[in-house]
Amino acid sequence: MSQTPIHMPSLKLRRVAIDTYKENVAYLHRECPIYRSEGFQALSKIEIHKVSDGTPVIAVLNVVDDDNITAPDQLGLSEQVYDQLGVPEGTEVFISHATPPPSLKSVHLKITGERLSYEDYLNIIQDIVNNRYSKIEIAEFLVGCAETGMEREEVLNLTRAMVDTGDRFNWGEHQVSDKHCIGGIPGNRTTMLIVPIVAAHGMLMPKTSSRAITSPAGTADTMEVLAYVDHSQEILREILQKERAFIVWGGTARLAPADDILIAVERPLSMDSPGQMVASILSKKVAAGATHLLIDIPVGETAKVRNSSEGQKLRKIFEYVGDKMGLHIEVMLTDGSQPIGNGIGPILETIEIMKVLENDPHAPLELREKALQLAGRIIEFDLDVRGGQGYLIARDILESGRALAKMNAIIDAQGRNPEPLKLGTLQHEVLASRSGIVEAIDNLKIASIARLAGAPMDKGAGAYLHKKVGDKVKKGEALFTIYAEFNADFNFAITASEKEPCYTIEGKDNNE
């Protein structure tokens, strides 16, 4: 434990209302005597000590010149580190230079290609969770793992370390089902169909989901259109006991907390190495109390996994680590050649989910069928269900209306959102530049357009596809519609759709 530097002058604590997202940041005024005398530098790490407690909190230092942010006799703290320190504004604190975490030596070994042990990964993850790493140092760790590779035993070690540095749910039943898609396919909101189907069969399926980071919608963003998704563990247990399932945001629970910190650095770097991906997904599932897990790996030219060979390699890593972690795991390679369904964005996807549950004849067939296939596989985790019967059971639950009834019960138990569905008022149709047949839709480009339009922050923003792969199209016919709430987002999305067309149309152009 570091000693409080009582020889140094104290500073008055000031709360700076800045969300630095998963990073502790402190602010010193350039005219602060301590800044001048002790040789602190911007982006260096400091330890913050309370007078009453010698246990320090680590933060990255920023230097400011504006008294409105922090005065020379104050130490400003971003929201995260202020909450972590847990003392009111005006409290006297001391600062000192932070000692580099010893686990950084293991990071440097990984960068040179060395294999790391469980203890190495545990020390690294503990330091990350305790905010002893800056984002630059976390990036070092991620790049080291991605560039030099991780053998399957290392992926297992990292997964265990991530689980062991957080909390774990225990739901008190021998079989707890879960499902996860590795992502990359817009509109792939099968979870909100699978959960009520599986729960209506009587199986336990507590679903903690994420919000979108780089996609137009995460499951939690879409479920939030219908119901509240932020609940305490006590409330979740009550909902689960009554309805056998929930669909909530997992961010409030301290489940594999390092994962959220690592993701915050991975996403801007567009890093998604196989080892890190497997550790991220499986650590969350084990911590969430799952015993039986279905993994969906979409395969397509513009998906995360480009071909079946890559998919099979990833499947083997999932199965090895899952088995060692005590998970009954099954992996399905699915079609990732184009978006699933037509709606991309929280409200647009919610509308289609409800159409499927209501057995609306205009519901997107591919979303319905994929959800039934995946739900059927999970139902076959039930020892009383014979292999091959799961799909038929899932279909019966959907067509009988039991899935809709269960979804409404889950929504009511979580707290129905009183706000009505409202699509973005700004709308723009993107038209075909030629006639022919739609040969391909670029998942990455259409997702980017939906995000530029404002999704998922603006729940009514996104894109609605009028044409899918294999459809005939005439020149001037609408390919998709952009929805937005604000003019700036609207114009960004339109400009992107013009610069980088996301539809490939082949065949004879009758107008040529």
What does this structure look like?
With 512 residues, this protein is an alpha/beta fold. The protein has four domains: 11-97, Beta Barrel (Barwin-like endoglucanases); 104-149, no CATH class; 177-253 and 270-414, Nucleoside phosphorylase/phosphoribosyltransferase catalytic domain (Pyrimidine Nucleoside Phosphorylase, Chain A, domain 2); 426-506, Alpha-Beta Complex (Aldehyde Oxidoreductase, domain 3). Helix content is 40%, strand content 20%. The chain contains 18 helices and 18 strands. A six-stranded mixed barrel has the order 1-5-2-4-3-6. Strands 12-15-17-13 form a four-stranded antiparallel beta sheet. A hairpin with a 2-residue loop joins strand 3 and strand 4 (53-64). Helix 3 (104-111) packs parallel to helix 5 and helix 9 (233-243) packs antiparallel against helix 16. The longest helix is centred in the middle third of the chain and has 17 residues, at 308-324. It is globular and about 75 Å long. The N and C termini lie far apart (77 Å).
Low-pLDDT residue spans = none
Tell me the name of the CATH class of the largest domain: Alpha Beta
Strand order of the largest sheet: 1-5-2-4-3-6
Structural class: alpha/beta
User: What sort of overall outline do the alpha carbons produce when their principal axes are compared?
Assistant: globular
The value of Rg in angstroms is 25 Å
Helix content percent band = 25-40%
CATH architecture descriptor of the largest domain: 3-Layer(aba) Sandwich
Taken as a percent bin, the fraction of beta residues is 15-25%
- Mean pLDDT across the residues is 93
CATH topology of the largest domain: Pyrimidine Nucleoside Phosphorylase, Chain A, domain 2
Largest sheet: 6 strands, mixed, barrel
Query: How far apart are the first and last residues' alpha carbons, in Å?
Result: 77 Å
Care to count the β-strands?
18
CATH homologous superfamily heading of the largest domain: Nucleoside phosphorylase/phosphoribosyltransferase catalytic domain
Give the total of domains: 4
Total DSSP helices: 18
